[in-house]
From TrEMBL:
This is Nitrous oxide reductase accessory protein NosL/NosD. Pfam families: NosD, NosL. Keywords: Membrane, Repeat, Transmembrane, Transmembrane helix. SUPFAM superfamilies: NosL/MerB-like, Pectin lyase-like. The keyword Nucleus does not apply. It comes from Natrarchaeobius chitinivorans. Residues 382-553 form the Periplasmic copper-binding protein NosD beta helix domain. InterPro entries: N2O_reductase_NosL, NosD_dom, PbH1, Pectin_lyas_fold, Pectin_lyase_fold/virulence, SCF-Subunits/Alg-Epimerases.
């Protein structure tokens, strides 16, 4: 009786699906006149990291385009005409958006444009908009955006010629421009350089690790009574050796030396300020414990180090966050090393501020009992560094990064924090091989629109959100996302998600990106209450180059070992296939098969939905799935052919 009721409910759901199909397709305006351009802030935009946008001078006027598509209900804004051209030339662009109906571009004929020292176009006001089809484009000039070389459009050819005469380049039409190859650092470029990032990180570690082997010049207790006196007496490029014991001191290191503990060594502050502050390049702190920092959350006054304020948009933010108390504070201490250290933190464990090229490894940070009382285990400000083999537990943010482009965090353990790894305005980072467990909010959280991050081979369990990457053109692969409320949150655009195992979550993947520009393939969705959930926006097609994903519950095997027909984890029937007996039979009904053949063929169809046009009949990542309790719930191709077990 119960099963009959379930199937009856599913039949009702089928009727709702058919109704949605009938009225949910975006209707193209039949008028012949072109739509007027809109304010760029009203577009769904892409092509510029938020950090870069914040960092622009007030008079910078970057070239932009806005596009009205035939089957996409929002106007898409592109920072950089080249961003649109690259997107337009991608396979599947028309399938996702329909045809560009009208394209407007910035008209530099309408302003008196110059180039800044960085090559950015400047003017006293924003350029007007002009129709791209009648515009002239200067390519190969000295003009740039934060992403690199840019294309400058003009309504008047004479203006384009004058600009090219002054700044180089050649002039092309819109038709010629669309035929040009435009190279951009997309998600596949990020994928292909992961090995290089690991190698470069290895080289960085090897170089900085030599600091621990400097010759000993001063021994505490023999050559000086206190640790600070030994530091003050030590020549540069030597080691201050601290024998076994507890030293009640607050230390300042202002020259390039190594502070190394021998035995069980603890440096204990007096509860005021940072315990160890270093302000010299190539400083090393090795082999000791640190405790007794102050509990001041925000900094006040000038920050340590010789770096002059640069008037950056985040200067106040930096002073507040990086100026708070910490166990160890590295300020303007490039290429420094913190190794084999434990920190009992009152607020922040370790601060790296404007200390590029540094290495933190084999470090343990214990945070305050209440995460509300702390800040970060390891905090990196303007400090692209390598953080590896660290353990941070029970804090607010395990590892926090701000404007540290190129940061590497790998082989680390984040346990019981509020946020495990938290990136702000940080692009081109590598987060790899980390174990992130039982964060009260989010395992890995990438915010504020960064670009080209690689998040690979991480295991994330027991969080509200497992993996939550924002931004664009990132590579998210081979991650294990288990026992979270939401395994994977997709807000990013132009990114590639592949080889991930999403299992045992309440919601496997939650999609909120407004642009259907992601590549989602060869992932495995197993034993989630709901495999995927999609918010407002167009149909998202999760098939790339004919390759889809494995969905527990998808059925009807074909001869080439793929599933016959599409699968939509957001559709009322399909989303029940792995949970409700009888749903599989209903899914093969003629009505639903007709819908399956239609969905995905019309861009913009079924808003708020996900469809996989080529689901696989068995998991794509068997070894990774075997690390979960549910490997036996995923059918092989052979088992599907035989039918489910009774």
């Amino acid at each position: 009786m119960i099963e009959r009721q379930r199937i009856r409910l599913l039949v009702v759901a089928v009727g709702l699906v058919i109704a949605v199909v009938a009225v949910g397709v975006f209707v193209v305006d039949g008028e012949t006149s072109d739509p007027d351009p809109v304010h760029f802030d009203d577009t769904v935009s892409m092509g510029l990291a938020l950090e870069d946008e914040y960092g622009l001078e007030d008079d910078v006027r970057l070239p932009r385009a806005q596009v009205f598509y035939s089957q996409y209900e929002y106007v898409v804004g592109y920072y950089g005409v080249e961003t649109f051209v690259a997107s337009f030339r991608e396979d599947g662009h028309t399938d996702r958006f329909g045809h560009p109906r009208t394209v407007y571009v910035s008209d530099y004929s309408s302003v008196d444009a110059e180039l800044s020292a960085a090559g950015y176009p400047t003017a006293d006001r924003e350029p007007a908009w002009t129709d791209a089809e009648s515009a002239w484009f200067v390519v190969g000039s000295d003009a740039e955006t934060p992403s690199g070389e840019t294309i400058v459009p003009f309504a008047d050819r004479d203006d384009a010629t004058a600009f090219a005469d002054s700044h180089g380049g050649s002039i092309v039409t819109w038709e010629q421009l669309l035929d040009r190859d435009v190279e951009t650092d997309d998600a596949t470029v990020v994928r292909d350089r992961v090995d290089d990032q690991h190698r470069e990180a290895d080289e960085r570690v090897e170089d900085v690790s030599t600091l621990r082997d400097r010759p000993v010049s001063t021994v505490v207790g023999e050559d000086a009574d206190t640790v600070q006196e030994a530091i003050d007496a030590a020549p540069e490029n030597t080691t201050v050796l601290v024998p076994d014991g507890t030293y009640d001191e607050t230390l300042e290191i202002d020259r390039s030396i190594t502070l190394r503990g021998e035995g069980d060594v603890t440096i204990r502050g007096d509860g005021n300020g940072t315990v160890i502050t270093a302000t010299a390049d190539r400083t090393a702190v090795v082999g000791l414990a640190v405790a007794g920092s102050g509990s001041q959350r925000q900094g006040s006054g000038e920050l340590p180090g010789d770096d002059e304020p640069d008037g950056a948009w985040d200067e106040t933010f930096e002073a507040n966050y990086a100026g708070g108390d910490a166990g160890i504070g590295m300020h303007t201490a490039n290429e420094s090393l913190i190794e084999d250290v434990s920190v009992d933190s009152e607020i922040t464990g370790i601060v790296l501020r404007r200390s590029a090229g540094s290495v933190v490894r084999d470090v343990t940070v214990d945070s305050p009992d209440r995460w509300e009382d702390g800040h970060a285990g390891i905090l990196a400000f303007h400090s692209p560094s390598v953080v590896e083999r660290v353990t941070v537990s029970d804090g607010r943010d395990g590892i926090y990064s701000h404007r540290s482009t190129g940061l590497v965090v790998r082989d680390s353990t984040l346990e019981g924090n509020r946020l495990g790894i938290h990136l702000m305005h940080t692009s081109e980072a590598l987060l790899a091989d980390n174990r992130v467990a039982n964060q009260s909010n989010t395992g890995i959280y990438v915010m504020t629109g960064p670009e080209r991050n690689a998040i690979v081979n991480n295991e994330i369990r027991g969080a509200e959100y497992g993996l939550y990457p924002d931004g664009s053109d990132s590579y998210v692969a081979d991650n294990l996302l288990v026992d979270n409320r939401v395994g994977l949150r997709i807000d990013a655009t132009g990114s590639r998600y592949e080889g991930n195992v999403v299992a045992g979550n309440e919601i496997g993947a939650q999609v909120r990106a407004m642009l259907p520009t992601n590549q989602v393939l060869e992932n495995d969705f197993v034993e989630n209450d709901v495999h995927a959930d999609a918010g407002t926006g167009p149909l998202r097609v999760w098939t790339h180059d004919g390759t889809g994903n494995y969905w527990q519950g998808a059925s009807s095997l074909t001869g080439d070992r793929t599933v016959d027909g599409s699968y939509s984890p957001t559709a009322p029937v399909d989303r029940q296939l792995h949970r409700t007996d009888g749903a599989e039979t209903l899914a093969r009904s003629p009505a639903l098969e007709a819908i399956s053949g239609l969905q995905g063929t019309v861009p913009g169809m079924r808003t708020g939905s996900v469809v996989d046009l080529a689901p696989t009949c068995e998991p794509n990542n068997q070894d990774l799935l075997a690390e979960t309790p549910w490997a036996d719930r995923a059918w092989s191709c052979e088992r599907i052919e035989q039918g489910p077990s009774p």
